[in-house]
Amino acid sequence: xxxxxSENNLNPDLVDKDEHGTGGPxxxxxxxxxxxxxxxxxKAAASLGYKGTDLSxxxxxxxxxxxxxVDQGIRASTARMYLTKKLxxxxxRVKLNAQVEKIVFNGTRATGIxxxxxxxxxxxxxxxxxxxxxxxxxIGSPHLLLLSGVGPKEQLAALNINVVKDLKVGSNLxxxxxxxxxxxxxxxFLQNLNIDELVHYLxxxxxxxASNSMxxxxxxxxxxxxxxxxxxxxxDGFETWCSRTGYLSECQDGKLLNGTxxxxxxxxxxxxxxxxxxxxxxxxxxxxxEAIKGAPITGPLPxxxxxxx
Length: 309
Prior knowledge:
Residues 1-23 are annotated as: Disordered. By secondary structure, the chain is an alpha+beta fold. 21% of the residues lie in helices and 23% in strands. The protein has seven helices and 17 strands. The chain has a five-stranded antiparallel β-sheet, covered by helices on one side. Strands 1-2-4 form a three-stranded mixed β-sheet. Strands 7-8-9 form a three-stranded antiparallel β-sheet. Strand 10 (150-151), helix 5 and strand 11 form a beta-alpha-beta unit. It is globular.
């Protein structure tokens, strides 16, 4: 419900109304510009039964355009739509050029954090009266917990980190592997991406550069081994000279291996192709991609390594 309250969806007729909201601070809409040949790819997918639904809905399936957090041709990030509008508040302070290195605990209660100023290299401790909210992402959050003593005690002891709580932090990492599939198309769409188009965008925040081109085209499918949509196909890169296919959760029991506070030395062991089932599912999505690529409505798109042009 919170996500629905935060959303201001400007294309309610294109999505499942029960899954989206209007009137919130985050503007969500379809990109204003789509490459002409994207429609051909959608028709090819539809001819094979892959007609797209709301890809942010409860049961996304088929190939379709995604919506984006875009406001007046500019990315509507949470920082832009939330933080920049609240910087005048006296109870908010945003610290830039800082890296949190540790959560401070009193017993098992978080009482503050330690961060390093990346400009002065000074180490600063910040105490809290109520709570510490950890929001470092799928990699950063467990990494920081491990550095702070929350994790497998054997792993922490080997690194001389005091154990606050023995938990399986850093295990069960789920990550999806992608398979790169390149093709060429006879289309001159990208030849229009010139200095005039750039000036037009900088002046009006509209046109082709107000879009993310083919990246907005993606789809969800189920493999022959699952009744659920466990496969995703998406197009990668503004110049769109490759697409990617991937299995959404084939990385079983991945692990985060804690190193030092230096993020460059942080290690993730993904176990990407741990079972034969994973390889079979990857093979399945590649076959679906090949079927869409060769559908009669678009004509075969020969594989190659040249950019579209």
